[in-house]
Every structure is written in C-alpha cells, then in structure tokens.
Amino acid sequence: MAPEKTILITGGAGFIGSHVVRLFVNKYPEYRIINVDKLTYAGNLENLRDIEDKPNYLFVKGDIVDQAFIHDILGRYAITGVIHLAAESHVDRSIASPMEFIHTNITGTVNLLNAARHHWKGTSGEKLFYHISTDEVYGSLGEQGYFTEQTAYDPRSPYSASKASSDHLVRAYFHTFGLPVVISNCSNNYGPYQFPEKLIPLFIHNIVNNKPLPVYGKGENVRDWLYVGDHAAAIDILFHHGEKGETYNIGGNNEWKNIDLIKKLCSVMDGKLGRKPGTSARLITSVKDRAGHDLRYAIDSSKIRKELGWKPSVDFDKGLEMTAGWYLSNKEWMEKVTSGDYLKYYEEQYVKR
Ligand code: NAD
Ligand code: DAU
Questions:
Q1: Is the model's pLDDT at 175 over the cut of 90?
Q2: What is the pLDDT of residues 133-173, one digit of tens each?
Q3: Whole-angstrom Cα distance, residue 92 to residue 349?
Q4: What is the pTM of this model?
Q5: Which of 152, 220, 296, 313 is the most exposed place for a label (fewest CB within 10 A)?
Q6: How many angstroms separate the alpha carbon of residue 198 from the centre of ligand 2?
Q7: pLDDT score of 351
Q8: Ligand 1 atom index nearest CA of 86
Q9: CA nearest 204: which of 334, 69, 351?
C-alpha cells in the first residue's frame, strides 16, 4: 500500500532534525520518512540508531546544494511534504568562515524550493514546504520587549543573515509561485544529541573533563531556552495544522542570562558528579566576547499557543536535569562526535580570541 504521505526531512541527522525524525517515524507508521543529510561534523547517524531499522524510514546521504541530487530525491520518492532543517547552525563558525553558510542555508534552500515547485506543479493532493528557522533573524533586543511575527528582520551575524535570506526566499516562492509554505522561528533549543559546540553541551563536556568554561564577555547576554522535544512537538503541529503562507514564533518563555544559566548548570553537574558544591563553577573563565554578540532574544509565541494550542511541556529545572543526565549516560556518544575535527576547531578558536 502506498504511504499516506512521503515526507522529506533535511538535516535529520543533526540535533533538532534527529528528534523530528524520531517523532515522525514512531508516531506516523503510515507515513514514509526520507532523511537527507550530508553528515557534516554536526550530523551523526549515532543520533538515530534506535529507529534506523523501522520500515517507514530511509536515510539518504547527500548535499542539499547539489541540484541534480535534490531533484532526483523529490521525484524518485514522490515527496509530498518537506520539513527543511538542514543548515549550518553555529554562529561562531559563521563568523570564522561565512561561505559554507551562504551555500547551504541560502543556495541549498533555493534548490529545495525549485525542486518542490517543479515536482508539485499541476499535481493533486496536499503538499507542504515547511521551513525551520530561528529567532535570530529578528536581531537583538534591549532589556524590554519581545519578537513577534511582525518584528522587522534585522539579522546581525552571517548565520542569522543567511537564515533571514532563506526565510525571505521561502516567502517569495509562496507569493510569486503559490508554493504552499509554512515558516517557524524558534528560540534556543537544548537537550540530548546537541553537538558539543553549543553552550549547554559544550559546558557539560568541559565540566566532566575539568576544562575551563569560556563565558563570552561578562555573560550578560540573554537567551530564551526551549527543550528540543517541545520544538519537535510544535513542528508536528505546524506541519499538520499550520496555515499556508504563515509564520509562527516558537519559544520557551524562559529567559536566562548566560552567567546565571551557567551557574545553575554547574550546580546540577556538581550534584550529578558527586562533587562538592562550587567545584564546577570554579572552571568559569571570562573570554573575549563574540563579535557582534546579540544581547537578548525573547520570543512572543502567543500565536501558536492561541491558534494551535501548543505550549512547552518540559519545565527548565527538569529539562536541564534530564539533559545533564543524558550526556553523562552517553559518554560514548560524546566521544564519537568529538573525534574528527572537533578539538582542532576549538583550539584554533581559542588561539584567535
Ligand atoms: P545541527 O547543526 O545540529 O544540524 C544540522 C544538520 O544539517 C546536520 O545533520 C548536518 O549534517 C546537516 N547539513 C548541513 N549542511 C547540509 C547540506 N548542505 N546538505 C544536507 N545536510 C546538511 O543544527 P540544529 O541545531 O539541529 O538546527 C536545525 C535547524 O533548526 C537549522 O535550520 C537551524 O537554523 C534551526 N534552528 C536551530 C535552533 C537551535 O537552537 N539549535 C533554534 C532555532 C532554529
Ligand atoms: O536563538 C536560536 C539560535 O540559538 C539558533 O538559531 C542557533 O542555531 C543556535 O546555535 C543558537 O544560537 P546561540 O548563538 O544563541 O547559541 P550558542 O549555544 O552558541 O550560545 C548561547 C549563548 O552562550 C550566546 O549568548 C553565546 C554564549 N556562549 C556560547 C558558547 C558556545 C558563551 O558564552 N560561551 C561559549 O562557549
């Protein structure tokens, strides 16, 4: 029997993508899920071992920048929905080396839009191109206020500028060509399977290994943290019920100054590692600030909450405990993903700072 829907998930071997793939494969056995991922340093099939043998799941290694490859995938598997997560996602890497962000985040997105437009033209049945984006496209807030869906775009890093550009192109394909699209812009995610270059998993890794915890500047910057499972749940709702052409903000309503979050994480880790309170916090080291470091992000997610009934389900204390516990029980995963160019990259960064 033909599957009810055949969904292409890009970047499904990455952090958020792996949670979305797992959710869809397990929750919708009647769908076929095709995961296309280039397996960059951030993509890892270790993230999906538990579902790789499911009959409704297929992994295909490939680059979204490769036009012929993407056209072939959409045609060969008769894709009816795209959930597009593949991206270069780390702000610091975009400062060190912007070009890969332009290729993957902009050209890769346009390749997917072109392929969807080509293959869906004149066909019947429900189709959707769902683009996953970030709150960083809105720029930086002062101490007050929130990003709403009406906030003007003001990206300030190469990463956020590349994501803003891809959002604009997705909207352009809706208005110009009538491609059915939905976009969501989410705040900072945390949880299992996040590559240990981002704040929370990097600091867990360094605490375990008694390495310095590099706080950029004074640690005064504010981020709005959301458990990754809650983002995946929002993506499920928006894929099925989001209105075509609309944008939805997703956030945790959970703002933390970096330094306060880091101290909280240190105390959770002291407890888990049986260390004397205050031990991990002694590793905190102030380093040179990130160039163009956005001061504050805070999301107003009332649209998805009111219209579609989504809300975060994991409270931050519990989420941080679960996350710290997951990394400590999965040291082998940490070792696998931090082999390769990981240490080289970090050593180079610290020399530059
Ligand atoms: P990630 O870096 O963990 O994963 C990205 C995945 O994309 C990896 O598996 C990588 O191999 C793959 N990829 C990269 N370039 C590719 C290419 N050219 N072709 C095919 N695959 C490629 O990223 P993440 O944190 O899981 O973020 C996923 C998406 O969600 C991104 O679009 C990001 O902008 C967005 N987002 C992330 C957050 C966050 O807090 N992490 C918040 C909001 C939005
Ligand atoms: O807001 C959503 C965005 O959140 C996503 O679009 C990005 O893909 C994701 O990487 C994340 O971006 P941030 O730059 O906010 O995340 P990061 O974990 O890199 O940093 C969080 C904060 O911690 C930020 O203010 C910088 C600071 N930081 C980060 C690192 C890695 C440090 O002080 N020290 C560090 O070593």
A1: yes
A2: 999 999 999 999 999 999 999 999 999 999 999 999 999 99
A3: 9
A4: 0.97
A5: 152
A6: 6
A7: 46
A8: 7
A9: 334
To test the pocket of ligand 1, the residue of 15, 18, 21, 103 to mutate (highest count of ligand atoms within 8 Å of its CB) is 15
Q: What are residue 257's DSSP bridge partners?
A: 222
Measured from the Cα of 159, ligand 1's closest atom is 34
Supply the pLDDT for residue 307: 98
CA 242/CA 248 separation, integer angstroms: 8
Which residue has 């812009």 as its token pair?
Answer: 185
Residue 52: per-residue pLDDT: 94
Retrieve residue 27's tokens: 């929750």
CATH annotation of 6-190+226-250 = 3.40.50.720
CATH 3.90.25.10 in the chain, residue ranges: 199-222+256-291+315-348
* Cα 206–chain centre separation: 22
Which token pair is 177? 């060509």
Q: Whose CA is nearest to atom 35 of ligand 2?
A: 199
Fold of 199-222+256-291+315-348: UDP-galactose 4-epimerase; domain 1 (3.90.25)
d(CA 18, CA 10): 10
Contact between 129 and 282 under an 8 Å Cβ cutoff? The reply is: no
Q: Is 250 helix (H, G, I), strand (E, B) or coil?
A: strand
